[in-house]
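Let us practice reading a record.
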Amino acid sequence: MEILIGLVFLGASLAVAFVLPVLSYLRATQATQRAEALSREVQALRAEVAALRAAPGAPAPAPPLAPTPTPTAWVETVRDLAAASESAPPPVLAPPVAADGPLPEMAPDGSAVETAHADHGPAPTPDVAEGAPSVAPGVPRPEPHVEGLEERIGARWLLYAGIGSLILGISYFIKFAFDNGWVSEPLRVAVGLLVGGALVAVGQRFVRQGLALFGHALSGGGLVVLYVAIYAALHIYDLIAPSTAFTAMLGVTLLGTWMADRHGVQVLAALALLGGFLTPALVGGGENRQIFLFVYNALLMVGALVMVARHAWAGVAGLAYGLAVAMALAWGVRFYRPAAGLQTLLLLTLQLGIVALMIVTLRRQRGRSVLAVPASWVLLSAPVLYHAVALWLIGRSQGVFLVYLLLATVAGLSAAYHAGWRWARTIVLGLVAVPFLDWIGDLVTPRWHAAGLVTAVALYLLHLAGQWRDLSDDDPTVRVPIAEFVHTHATGVFLPLALYTFLEDRAAWWNAPMLTALAFWNLGIAAVLRVRMPVLSWQFVALAATLGAVAISEWFEGPVVAIGWALEGAALGYAGLQARNRWLDRGALTLFSLSALRLMDALASPLAVGTWPVVNARALAAVIIVGAMAWLAARVEEAPEHFGGALVRHVLIVGANVLAIAWMSAEIIHVFAERAYASTAAGLPAGAARADLGEQVALSVAWALYAVGLVAAGFRRGYAPARYLAIALFGLTIVKVMTKDIAELDRVYQMLSVLALGALLVVASYLYQRTAGGRKAE
């Protein structure tokens, strides 16, 4: 009896305290909205009639219209309108009457009365285009009613606060009833299911009545109540089996999905998707059923894919991806064992395929949703995450690892081709190359050596073929994208780097022939592409130059390496001039810089005793490098319109002169070092001291003489950078004489050094004065 009384009291309290106020408020809101709509329509009609009367040639004015009811009068008729027009369709405005026709008669209440034309019967209705405005042009529409702050507080906020207070009180009452045993456990679950179902049903009714937001909120709350009731029946009260609970929750998920798809509500779809992914954890989270879990999650992702295709819901796609990752991670933390590695990889591959379809679908839906493209970028993290997990699952299984890298490369290149995203090939290469280089560097099993080398070549050829396939569809007259240049160099560097890493600790003597062969291979590719894609052809020339430079350093030692780099820099720079390619220019300058650094290192090192000055390998390297730089500078002068032509020429000329000065100084130091060594060997320390003093004087004089030559050449050729370099060299010589020669040399050598410097400075000044005078005379 107490239980019955408690249930009755509970139902009555719910009806009186919650349902009836909400229904009353909604009815009153509907009536008020309809009343305001009628008021706006009457105002529009009055404005239209006034405009027609004001038109030229209009007949005598009709009796004045009745005044529009005030908002207060409308509020007083809310209840009557709510009762009378609840099921009536909204009124439709009549089309405007032509200006030359008779005006309709107006009833005292402001409504139009149909009249027949005296001679021609009923007045004809003019044709009105669909969607045309019902108000005459130039007549402003009445502004819609704007809810004020006082009305918002009184009509909405107080209601929300009251409903919240009532729900809180009812919750206390239900808790009190449960604690006192008024409601049994099965009845509690039944009440939860009934309340959830009722909320869903009432919510759908409100949706049909036009209160979509309120109705969907109630329906979503009902879904949550149903999930909670089923969970309580399984885990709290132990009333049903796990299979029954799973089926029931799946049914709730399907119900939510159906409502979301029918009404086009993404929030309901997200709620159903969340419940669906959490169902396995809510029902049987303590069991390891990997295949069932991953396949079930894949089916949910397929459902999300269908919703994305039908409604362009980017949020649903992102939520499905995130929940799938979270569920897989939760399973892996708790149940993963190395024995299940291959099975896990296959199941993850299935889910990755669904995510790929989502990405494609979102890309096609970018016109329907502004979030489609950002969501697709988020989902692009799935292949990267899958790749990292796959490498972790495979571990050091040699054969599986190599096969996976090949399959991943094929899949990535195919996806990049169909997506039309050129940077994807470079990303795929990076994702595959990094783990492969680490693997081949640590490879210790001899039987996998051949497989590793074949895999390296296969990866290189796959990327080469992928690039060729992408470029074969392009117009040869269109500029090649920068992504192709980056991919060309990344692919070209990958193979020699992989082979070099493998051979370094096993057969290092093969590195030089390997690099040389690859340099000629790239030259062959450049020759093939010269007609079809000449711009890209020069990129392979640059690759060949780079590999050739490294090969020279492997074949030879000392200044010979600098010679090879300088000659390749000259060839590359000339190729840049022919192709008008700035990247080849920069590559040439880089090679010349490396060559200059290598030469400076050789010049700073003393030669062996007995080596002839000027006639030695170091001098030969200096002459060739300086000559190569001068030759390329002359070629640049012939093409001044080339990008960076003047700057490249200045750099080459100044660099060549700096190297010439350094070589001249090194040869002077070597000559006097030989004399000092001979005097020391003969037991003549005074001779060795005089050799050191003579070396300093010779350096000062040689620098000053070179500076005078630069001044003369600069004026003769009209080349200012040469004169600037001469001034800088004169400054360096003056600093040396003042700080070192005068302080350390004997009087005779001091005198010779200062006199020579002064004389040469006077000569340089004469050249400047003579040139300046000649310019004034002109």
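A brief commentary: Residues 1-17, 68-79, 81-139 have pLDDT under 50 and may be disordered.
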